[in-house]
Design goal:
Elements: H1 2-23, H2 27-59, H3 82-87, E1 96-111, E2 119-136, E3 139-148, E4 163-176, E5 179-187, H4 210-213, E6 220-230, E7 234-241, E8 270-277, E9 283-292, E10 306-317, E11 320-331, H5 334-338, E12 343-356, E13 359-369, E14 380-392, E15 395-405, E16 413-423
Antiparallel strand pairs: 1-2, 1-16, 2-3, 3-4, 4-5, 5-6, 6-7, 7-8, 8-9, 9-10, 10-11, 11-12, 12-13, 13-14, 14-15, 15-16
Helix pairs in contact: 1-2
Amino acid sequence: MKSKTRTALVSATLLIGPLLASAAESDPLKEEIENLKSQNKIIMERLEATADMLESLQSGQSRPATTTEVTHDHSMAGKGALRDRTFGVHGTRGSTTIGAYGEMHYNNLKNKKAGGSDKKEMDFHRFILFMGHEFNEKTRFWSELEVEHAVIKDTDDGSNGGEVAIEQAFLEFDLTADTAVRAGIMLIPVGFINETHEPPTFYGVERNNVEKYILPTTWREGGTGLTGRFANSFSYDVVLHTGLQTSASNNYAVRKGRKGVSNAPASDLAMTARLNWIGVPGLVLGAAIQRQSDITQGTDSTAGAATLVSAHAAWQISRFTLRSVYASWNLNGSGPASVGADKQSGWYVEPSWKFSPQFGIFARSSSWDNRVNSGSDTSYSQVDVGFNYWPHEDVVIKFDYQDQKAPAGANEYDGFNVGLGYQF
């Protein structure tokens, strides 16, 4: 197209040029001819631009990627996360999206218990690559590949040898404008941090302990689910998925039961349901429930069903935000009851104030206990205060100070943490 257009332009110039030159010898017409030359130059420039545009459109190189909001994606865990931004819009058919996030931590913590060792270390805790693909306007794929602690190595001393893991890998199919089905490896829809944990989206260097030990972030399972919204103010998720597999050897702690969909036992599936209400601007109220009929996957006859109930709230008024999460597990059976793990619960409250788009401060009070009914003191509590500085909305520098209270015989850490994080 472009070559043909240029040929026509050259031909027109060859024909018009001599005529203009000849006519210019006549003084009465000289001024008019000069005007015609100027107009001819303008026309040539515009035709040249048109030829460039036609070639680009023909090759598809400069076709604009139109975007529209996806009405079925209603994660209430924190707008601005990469997952929300990517799946909050649709690109052109066949488009592939890549991205990443990562965080490095420096911990300078003193162990207040006699004989306990301090924690002074630097760790590139997480490096994650994202990839998504839009097959068509109703079918898409999303994935996250994670490397933890920078290297993978064999360890004989019980130290952390790092990990490579698939954090998410699921297909999504739109049923209607407000409903979609997902299938694959998915993050369980509980709390705030489990689904949205990119460093620029939350306060504090380390993820909070309640959404670590009670809601075992990052918690992913294999299965299928339905997600959507209704009545303009509600969103929901219902997921059927693989369950946890705890044991007496770890006192039935729920965090120890994660299998990461690596040959995960599926003799006893779990179901999770979540409901969010966003009827008032700036306010999110939600709750989730999960049920699993055998939390040891048939390996322990003294254990049985497990039920998780959790609630979360976020309230933003201008520069002030208040977040809170409560979660509680009930485990059936004489085995969990014998060590007090039949009840495991925790909560936190976190107010924050953002002075500007670049700087905000926070405080957090939290408490968690994986053996509530042990008959002894097994509860942890912690107060954190600190700030986030965003030189760019997707880059963050963090600082916090923690004051921890731990039960007898457990490590108790006080001190400060510094973090660096990004997403794109």
